[in-house]
Design a protein that fits this description.
alpha+beta; 9% strand; rod-shaped; HATPase_dom; transferase; transmembrane helix; protein dimerization activity
Length: 416
């Protein structure tokens, strides 16, 4: 209950407790002032006794402490008070002020709506009788006045009661609405708290996913740069070890040196998440052409590169992904395929780019590929993960003795 509601409740308690005493006192004073209406000592004694009885009845009823619940005790109090008021107005009509107290608390004293209205009707009869000059009614005019006042008072009381009931209904509906709003607000607050906790959890998960993704990126970059470079350097040094003359050895040493410098540059760019060296000053077609040519020269395998469609400048992430897939596929071919010919085709087809790498090597069974070990490369899984990272796909077709075809399809995302 709010402070305003508490103040209203306190005032209502005071009115119901002291209002009866006040109206009784006003009625008694007016009756004394109009002493000519009570002509015999017996009437004065009876009036005084009834006033004392009214005071004792009120003391028995006690002060109001909050809204009362209708009960049999309340009904007895209401009936006795009405009877005293009726008797007093019979002696002096000015006691009608005291009789009007029946208007204020019938709903708190008498159970049942019908009984409450019967109690109000009884009060209206007493008040209308006092307003028409007091009882008993002696003349037709007084009876007519009594009837008019009775209908008028009861009509007004009915209208006021109806308005009061509507206002109480609205108050109850407002209370229900406020309760529902409080419940909704509490549920909303709980939801906000849960969302805040979920948001914090998602942030932690996103941070962990970002760290894991960065680790995978660096692992793949290191594999595609340092590991492949070192493999090439080892191959060149093996040739040097078996070289028949100094000129051949010098040629392969220069290639090993170039591979070392190239691998060092790629490693540095991978750490800083930059584009591959081959894409630094050229587009993807030129970078692939150069990569295929150098690989063929280094391995002695016939390697060809072809572009179909209208070449476009691709987003650096798309270009880097396709270049890394080619490098990994060529590395796998050099290590495992024993191929005599390799063909790389880059196709621009409207809204997607297709990269095909085919060789005529020994082939393999894709379903029998062993799991990656700590000493092995990223292989097919690494290429497939790269393609899927940019919403693409990678397929492998191969049979033992029939060569291998690797195809990557990625969205065509143009350079910013």
């Amino acid at each position: 209950m709010t402070a305003a509601d508490q103040r209203i409740e306190h005032r209502q308690n005071q009115f119901h407790t002291w209002g009866v005493y006040g109206l009784l006192a006003v009625s008694a004073l007016l009756s004394v002032a109009a002493h000519e209406l009570m002509t015999s000592p017996a009437e004065w004694y009876a009036g005084g006794a009834l006033v004392v009885a009214a005071v004792l009845l009120q003391l028995w009823h006690g002060p109001r402490r909050g809204r009362r619940t209708p009960s049999r005790r309340g009904t007895v109090y209401y009936v006795l008070r009405w009877a005293i008021a009726f008797a007093l107005t019979w002696l002096n009509p000015f006691f009608g002020f005291y009789a009007s107290t029946g208007y204020f608390d019938s709903d708190e004293l008498i159970p049942g709506k019908r009984r409450q209205w019967l109690g109000l009707l009884a009060t209206v009869v007493v008040v209308a009788g006092s307003q028409s000059g007091g009882m008993p009614l002696r003349s037709p005019v007084q009876w007519l006045l009594f009837a008019v006042l009775l209908v008028t008072n009861y009509g007004l009381l009915t209208v006021v009661g109806h308005i009061t009931q509507q206002e109480e209904q609205r108050s109850r509906e407002r209370a229900v609405t406020i309760t529902e709003l409080e419940r909704t607000n509490a549920a909303l607050q709980r939801a906000l708290d849960e969302n805040a906790a979920l948001h914090a959890q998602l942030l932690v998960q996103a941070r962990e996913a970002g760290v894991a993704d960065e680790r995978r990126r660096l692992a793949a970059e290191i594999h595609d740069t340092i590991a492949q470079g070192l493999t090439g350097i080892i191959a060149q040094l093996q040739v040097v070890a078996n070289a028949p003359d100094l000129a051949v050895a010098r040629t392969h040493l220069e290639r090993a040196s170039d591979l070392a410098r190239h691998s060092l540059g790629e490693a540095r760019r991978s750490v800083h998440n930059l584009a591959p060296v081959a894409l630094a000053d050229a587009g993807l077609p030129e970078a692939l052409k150069k990569t295929v040519a150098e690989w063929g020269e280094r391995t002695g395998v016939r390697a060809e590169f072809t572009v179909t469609g209208t070449a476009e400048q691709l987003h650096e992430e798309v270009a880097a992904t396709l270049l890394r897939i080619v490098q990994e596929a060529l590395s796998n071919t050099a290590r495992h395929a024993a191929a005599g010919r390799v063909g790389v085709t880059l196709s621009f087809l409207g809204d997607e780019v297709i990269l095909d790498i085919r060789d005529d090597g020994r082939g393999f069974d894709p379903l029998a590929v062993p799991a990656r070990t700590s000493t092995g490369g990223f292989g097919l899984d690494g290429m497939r993960a790269r393609a899927e990272r940019i919403a693409g796909s990678l397929t492998v077709e191969s049979e033992p003795g029939q060569g291998t075809a690797v195809s990557a399809r990625v969205p065509l995302v143009r350079h910013d």
